[in-house]
Design goal:
Layout (H helix, E strand, L loop, with lengths): L1 E5 L4 H12 L3 E5 L8 H10 L4 E3 L6 H11 L3 E4 L6 H6 L1 H21 L4 E7 L22 H19 L4 E7 L1 E3 L18 H9 L6 E4 L11 E2 L1 E3 H12 L6 E6 L5 E2 H12 L5 E4 L14 H7 L7 H10 L5
Parallel strand pairs: 1-2, 1-4, 2-3, 4-5, 5-6, 6-11, 7-10, 8-13
Antiparallel strand pairs: 9-12
Helix pairs in contact: 1-2, 1-8, 3-5, 5-6, 9-11
Bound molecules: UDP-4-deoxy-4-formamido-beta-L-arabinopyranose.
UDP-4-deoxy-4-formamido-beta-L-arabinopyranose binds next to helix 7 and strand 8.
Amino acid sequence: MKVLVTGGLGYIGSHTVVELLENGDEVIIIDNLVNSKLEVLEKIKKITGKNATFYQYDLCDYSKVSEVFEKERPDAVIHFAGLKAVGESVSKPLTYYENNLLSTINLLKCMAKYNVKKIVFSSSATVYGKPKTLPIREDASLHTTNPYGTTKLMIENILTDLYNSDSSFDITILRYFNPIGSHKSGLLGENPNGIPNNLMPYVVRVARGELPVLNIFGDDYPTIDGTGVRDYIHVLDLAHGHILALNNKIHGLKIYNLGTGKGTSVLELVKMFEKVNNVKVNYQIVKRRDGDIAECYASSDKAKNELGFTCKYTLEDMCLDSYNYHDAN
Ligand code: WQD
């Protein structure tokens, strides 16, 4: 299959591209390198021995997206591209709405124009907001608490309306929980520019001595040890979930949670990280971060039953692989 992967040089996109190439699929990447690096293309080749075709284009430029479809005629699309920093979305909402929505609309218009009907969309557990019951199931109420999450929910609605207007589209929406970890080669991983927003890349930098201390945002939540609980999923399991979705035989509009179904607190993750890597992570408890919720973890039964999705990797793997990821830069 010839698959167009938007954001294919990003954290989750690059791990998915590796698996596509290893499966013998042909991969076309569109990535504007706003939150990724060109060198990832070489690392993908080093891992797989194969080339992906790369376009450094911005999906907000319709003419560029159309050019790629005209030339490449993909069979399917996996759509990762988008701005994804929660805090930044609060301070720059118009940037987030313009970028994430316009890029998606351009992509979908080109899919319709070139009769490309299969898409897998990278959504997020953030569309659930503060969950009323746990584990979170796909039919849980949806409520977003920041512009980033709202763009994800709006795109889910756009995809739903598109399907209702034309049921020849085959649409899979994947709601991720907290992806962490890295490729076993140590060549691909999460390497955000600047100070990391997310927990694991921050822990890695503290363990490496690149940052002085981990600030744990609150230990007064109603959780096992007072710190925030999340469903951490290995990025390799997440990437595999996209391959299962792409090759899924059920046609229509489908929504799946991709998580492990297990909640882990910040302190539990820090202790596991220290243990498996034999390192010390200095931390201090500070006040809660605005917008954070206490506890969030998935029911992935639907993905398991319909896609055959299961998680192969453990929290130990996630901590080992995250620390092992070394970036030449
Ligand atoms: C995890 C836990 C923090 C950093 C976000 C997005 C979500 C998705 C994943 C894109 C929380 C605590 C964190 C730190 C800390 N992104 N923490 N100190 O907020 O669950 O989810 O990233 O799709 O949409 O919302 O992930 O890694 O930021 O936080 O104590 O320096 O770690 O309070 O309990 P989050 P996170």
